[in-house]
Amino acid sequence: MSAPASLYRVLSRVVISSSSCRASLSSAASQKHSKRNLTSSTLHSARKEDPLEETSLTIRSLFDSKERNKGTFVAACDIFMKRGPHRRGHVEFIYSALKLMEDYGVHKDLEVYKRLLNLMPKGKMVPTNVFQIEFMHYPKQQQCAIDCLEQMEMNGVMPDTEMEHILRNLFGKMSHPVRKFGRMMYWMPKFKNASPWILPQVVPNDAFELAKMAVERMCTVDPSSTITIYQTSEVEDALEDTWIVSGQSTVQQELLEKHPPGESIKVEGPFRIHLRNKSVGYFVLRAEAKPKPPPPSRAVIDDVGSIKSWFTGELEPEETLLTQPCSVHEQEDGTILALCVTGTSGRDSLLSWIRLLEKSNPCLARIPVLFTQASPIGEVITVEPEKHHDEITAAT
């Protein structure tokens, strides 16, 4: 056997052995990789099966309580707070809580909004440079805080200094939620004190108290207005037993006395006046608008045609006429003679109101009164806007 042939056999054996070693190493690596994948998939599946993982189902279960009040709402927030320092799913939890705040009656409670913002972890979301500030570091969390402030603004809840400290600890003093807080603190006090008719933060649910507040508010246009409480039981043959809150001024009584007996007046309504989140239906006694007086003639000063006024100083009769200014009750669409709120807003209660007004306005007995009620008969006091819309849709 020659030397090259023996060398070829030796080299071929080396190549075969090296290829077999490489194959065994690759198979071992693949087995190890498959084991590693199997282990990671097992951990991943175990993590998915973790009962503490936040899902929509678990968040819904926290607020699934028969007694919906502030105590149960705060208890749900405390349960979420105790789940760990990381508080995974806090953004989803806050959004779910914001949707349910009105159902629990805490949508106007500042302390509850503070508790929701305190659910976010503090420290790690504070930006460290100007680029993180302007490009909204942790945008999902910052937008969640802004939405929380938006809901406070929509419900008329004004934040305080403690709310500012919470936002600064979460996102820094130059973050977008802190800027939103600054805008709210600038505008909300202005709008809060803009109206001259001050209302309590929580208006009463009693329809009678709301009616008195509404009539007093509308009658402030005339300081001589008086508020009178009537009972329909004072009228003979009254079909409804309810109360009537009526408002009329001395100027309106004078306008009613000057009204021609042949011209009819109308009882119109109900119209709506809103007292915070409550609405009250009221009726008005309206007469047709009077024609406007002609504008005064403007004489030309340089005209020498009227020599009489030049020499004697006497003025013509049309030049001495005075135009009587209209009162606040005489509007372009008619003259308001009285207004009222009744307990039932029914036609019979309005008829009783006209009969009771005859005691202080005897001229009403000679004036025909027309009733143009535009709403269904029934309770229309303190109705929510959506419910009122549903009632109108059902009636039509």
Automatic annotation (TrEMBL):
Residues 30-50 are annotated as: Disordered. Transmembrane segments: none annotated. The keyword Transport does not apply. It is found in: Cytoplasm; Mitochondrion; Nucleus. It holds the Pfam family ECSIT_N. One of its GO terms (cellular component) is nucleus. InterPro entries: ECIST_C, ECSIT, ECSIT_N. Keywords: Cytoplasm, Immunity, Innate immunity, Mitochondrion, Nucleus, Transit peptide. Residues 249-374 form the ECSIT C-terminal domain. GO terms for biological process: cell surface receptor protein serine/threonine kinase signaling pathway; innate immune response. The keyword Mitochondrion applies. Belongs to the ECSIT family. This is Evolutionarily conserved signaling intermediate in Toll pathway, mitochondrial. It comes from Scylla olivacea.
